[in-house]
């Protein structure tokens, strides 16, 4: 009855989400406009799968690949890693292997305990574990990037940021719980394609959220559904749970990359005017939004070996979308054409226009702490390495040119890609 086993049969995808695009085999015999009957059949299958999976969880049936079935040696190594969970060089890929693919659940259980959240909110440990399993299982493991390991990586980064003195001195248990939950669930049920893809293929989620923060709204609503279904917070007053749900939404919606400038302008204004008052819940919430935005895109600030893996994974996901668009004769989205968009050029642009401006402001907020300095140093070194790799690619391209000359178009591309 495990969802992953059924997914491998080719009948339905691994996930319980409502995306008809997750298992591309389902589209093999239809056009994108699709047979209405076929689409309805797919949605019924996926809806049943979600219900069946959730009901198994609520009956207390944990997926077979449980942490507790691991050898003691692996458990020992995982425990040792957790003792260093606040270190920036934490290797989430190794941790995921040591926990047999349960990195998100294991990490969350540990962090909720470390931060005293279980005691403070009087949370039932069994219910908490079931909720974490629901969240982890609602990520698509076949996504190269937007999967539960990414969620665990973002959660570990968020833990590091919550410990920054400028923030930590003011945080309440509610702030910490919201920060960790938002980090863990910020990409839940991600389909592996971006918002423009959902809009141009007229996906029902795009119309549901009127083409605005489509994925982020879905991640938030999915999280609320699992919170209510698990009854994790059912013992708390209704007004408290409603407030938690709304703040979770505000945090997750802040990860929409289309809102990057909005948050940067506001952060710059606060820092320039020195008017942040972290005693004020509103200002604390804003800085939690910024912290989550940083955690979500912190890959370029990790050590090279980890950063490079994430870069290759996210580009692989882009290329898969491009292949799908090509298959259905749609215009290939920016960054999704494997023939034109190289990993180094994508990463250099991402670092220059998105990552650097945000992390420079974050360092200004924290007061240039050792962690902030460390992240900026990694960012600069990693960008230099991608530039070096890009240069090698262009050198190879030149040597492969029959005339031995760079064509006009190649030279123009080179100049564009290397312009900061």
Structural overview:
This protein is mainly α and 420 residues long. It has one domain: 3'5'-cyclic nucleotide phosphodiesterase, catalytic domain (Catalytic domain of cyclic nucleotide phosphodiesterase 4b2b). Helix content is 65%, strand content 0%. The chain is built from 20 helices and no strands. Helix 5 runs parallel beside helix 8, helix 8 runs antiparallel to helix 10 and helix 14 packs across helix 16. The protein is globular. The N and C termini lie far apart (52 Å). The N terminus and C terminus are likely disordered. It is an enzyme of class 3 (hydrolase). It holds the Pfam family PDEase_I.
Low-confidence stretches: 1-37, 41-69, 403-420
Could you state the order of secondary-structure elements as H and E?
HHHHHHHHHHHHHHHHHHHH
Which CATH top level class fits? Mainly Alpha
The gross shape turns out to be globular
**Topology-level CATH name:** Catalytic domain of cyclic nucleotide phosphodiesterase 4b2b
Number of helices: 20
Tell me the number of strands: 0
Going by CATH, the architecture would be Orthogonal Bundle
Structural domain count: 1
Mean pLDDT across the residues is: 85
Strand content: under 5%
Helical amount: 55-70%
Q: At the fourth CATH level, what is the homologous superfamily?
A: 3'5'-cyclic nucleotide phosphodiesterase, catalytic domain
What is the radius of gyration computed over CA atoms, rounded to a whole number of angstroms? 22 Å
End-to-end Cα distance, whole Å, is 52 Å
């Amino acid at each position: 009855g495990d969802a992953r086993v059924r997914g491998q049969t080719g009948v339905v995808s691994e996930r319980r989400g409502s995306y008809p695009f997750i298992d591309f085999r389902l589209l093999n015999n239809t056009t994108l406009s699709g047979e209405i009957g076929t689409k309805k059949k797919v949605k019924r299958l996926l809806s049943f799968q979600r219900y069946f999976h959730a009901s198994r969880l609520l009956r207390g049936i944990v997926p077979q690949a449980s942490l507790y079935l691991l050898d003691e040696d692996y458990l020992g190594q995982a425990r040792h890693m957790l003792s260093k969970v606040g270190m920036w060089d934490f290797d989430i890929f190794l941790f995921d292997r040591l926990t047999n693919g349960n990195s998100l659940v294991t990490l969350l259980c540990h962090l909720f305990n470390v931060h005293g959240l279980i005691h403070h909110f009087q949370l039932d440990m069994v219910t908490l574990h079931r909720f974490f399993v629901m969240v982890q299982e609602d990520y698509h493991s076949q996504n190269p990037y937007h999967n539960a390991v990414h969620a665990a990586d973002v959660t570990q980064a968020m833990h590091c940021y919550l410990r920054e003195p400028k923030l930590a001195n003011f945080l309440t248990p509610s702030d910490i719980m919201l920060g960790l939950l938002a980090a863990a669930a910020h990409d839940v049920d991600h389909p592996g394609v971006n918002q423009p893809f959902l809009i141009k293929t007229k996906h029902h989620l795009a119309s549901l959220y009127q083409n605005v923060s489509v994925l982020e709204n879905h991640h938030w609503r999915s999280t609320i559904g699992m919170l209510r279904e698990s009854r994790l917070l059912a013992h708390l007053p209704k007004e408290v749970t409603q407030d938690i749900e709304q703040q979770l939404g505000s945090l997750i919606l802040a990860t929409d990359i289309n809102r990057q400038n909005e948050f940067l302008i506001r952060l710059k204004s606060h820092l320039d005017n020195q008017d942040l008052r972290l005693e004020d819940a509103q200002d604390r919430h804003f800085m939690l939004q910024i912290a989550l935005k940083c955690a979500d895109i912190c890959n370029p600030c990790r050590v090279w070996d980890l950063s490079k893996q994430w870069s290759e994974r996210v580009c692989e996901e882009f290329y898969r979308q491009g292949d799908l668009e090509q298959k259905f004769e749609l215009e290939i989205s920016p960054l999704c054409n494997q023939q034109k968009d190289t990993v180094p050029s994508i990463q250099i642009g991402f670092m220059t226009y998105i990552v650097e401006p945000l992390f420079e402001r974050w360092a200004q907020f924290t007061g240039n702490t050792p962690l902030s300095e460390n992240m900026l140093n990694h960012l600069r070194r990693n960008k230099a390495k991608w530039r070096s790799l890009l240069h090698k690619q262009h050198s190879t391209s030149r040597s492969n040119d029959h005339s031995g000359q760079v064509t006009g178009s190649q030279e123009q591309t080179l100049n564009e890609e290397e312009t900061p």
